[in-house]
Design goal:
The chain is α+β, with helices and mostly antiparallel strands and about 350 residues long. Helices cover about 25% and strands about 25% of the residues. The protein binds flavin-adenine dinucleotide.
């Protein structure tokens, strides 16, 4: 469970940016009862590292990726309540659910990472978020030194956000299980333009076909490695803020939200600020997906961080909008001896 070495443990295979950073110790509990001791030793809690940017060598890290398994709690003709371990791979879990006849997660196919972290940032794609399917979350609270079950309503699940990103909870609560409430009837969400464009009749009755379609759309768009997906969140604006932006950018696309605010695409703001393909050291704004920052192979953490800051500054100057990172930036320890 516990790996430590003088000079540190390489972390390049434990996060998707693939940076040459290390950790003072890598703690990999394989059973839930190992979590309390592991949590005591760890400064950071990770899943599969697909939404982090380590700014250098890290203090001890706990990854929940080896906590596996699931249990059906209840199954009726309408729904299934199933408890799944945090370390299960998200995409594998989505596919498994479809094969069992448990529906709702199809549009979230091929999102990298683990089940536990899916809740941390309330993952979403193609018109679906995980939040409506989450019933409760179970885990170890380091501060209270106790196991806790939190109903979804207590987790403030919002747009790419949750209570687990707040200082009192971040790295203090190790999610070990998530209870999901899924449907037994397939009711596909086919509203997103990329999906609508496919218009294949099989999408209406074949959930596995929808899953494969989403995978194919994503594979065309995003690099498989060397990024953490979207680096920034889409800004959410109040009406006067949108009106101000429209004076500078009359053709900015926007999406009205139920609370009266508007979501605008960060990718558009970055693209129209002329940053597509912009390079800084070994890091680049993806030439086709400007919301994605990539490691071209030899980027340092500082290259990526400087690029992210350059994007933020340019977008602020051009459009007066602050882009908030979606990726979690991890503060380092002083560089470890080789
Ligand atoms: C190519 C690519 C495409 C992506 N596309 C999407 C997308 O379409 N939609 C989307 O929403 N996201 C997307 N992402 C982001 C990423 O897939 C999700 O954020 C995912 O949920 C991260 O899972 P992880 O296990 O890798 O988490 P990590 O990166 O390891 O951790 C992410 C955060 O969760 C916390 N955390 C992780 N596990 C636990 C745990 N067990 N207990 C407590 N805290 C924990 C960490 O402290 C950290 O703050 C994409 C990423 C990539 C690389």
């Amino acid at each position: 469970m516990f790996a430590a070495a003088s000079g540190g443990i390489p972390l390049d295979k434990y996060h998707t940016f693939g940076l040459a950073v290390r950790t003072q110790a890598l703690i990999l509990p394989a059973r839930e009862d190992e979590v309390p001791e592991a949590a005591q030793k760890a400064a950071y809690i990770l899943g599969e590292g697909s939404n982090i940017l380590p700014l250098g060598d890290l203090p001890p890290v706990l990854s929940t990726r080896y906590l596996r398994g699931y249990a059906v709690l209840e199954a009726t003709s309408d729904l299934v309540r199933v408890e799944v371990a945090a370390g299960e791979n998200w995409d594998g879990w989505v596919r498994f659910c479809i094969t069992q006849g448990w529906y709702g997660l199809e549009n979230l196919a091929a999102i990298p990472g683990s089940v536990g972290a899916a809740v941390v940032q309330n993952i979403g794609a193609y018109g679906v978020e995980v939040a409506p399917w989450v019933e409760s979350i179970y885990g170890w609270n380091k501060r209270l030194q106790a196991w806790q079950r939190l109903p979804a309503e207590a987790c403030s699940l919002g747009y790419r956000s949750s209570v687990f990103q707040m200082p009192a909870w971040q790295d203090q609560f190790v999610i070990t299980r998530v209870v999901l409430r899924l449907k037994r009837r397939y009711e596909p969400v086919l509203t997103y333009p990329d999906v609508v464009r496919r218009k294949h009749p099989r999408l209406l009755y074949d959930p596995l076909y929808l899953y494969e379609t989403i995978r194919a759309i994503r594979a065309e768009k995003l690099p498989a490695e060397g990024s953490a997906g979207s680096f920034f969140k889409n800004p959410i604006l109040k009406e006067p803020e949108l009106a101000d932006l429209q004076k500078k950018a009359p053709d900015i696309p926007f999406h009205p939200l139920p609370d009266g605010r508007y979501k605008v695409p960060a990718a558009w703001l970055i693209d129209k600020a002329g940053l597509k393909g912009y390079r800084l050291g070994g890091a680049q704004v993806h030439p086709r997906q400007p919301l994605v920052l990539v490691n071209l192979g030899n980027a340092t953490p500082q290259d990526l961080w400087a690029l992210a800051q350059h994007v933020q500054k340019t977008v602020a100057e051009r459009w007066g909008i602050h882009l908030e990172p979606e990726v979690r930036v991890l503060a380092p320890v002083p560089t470890l001896e080789p």
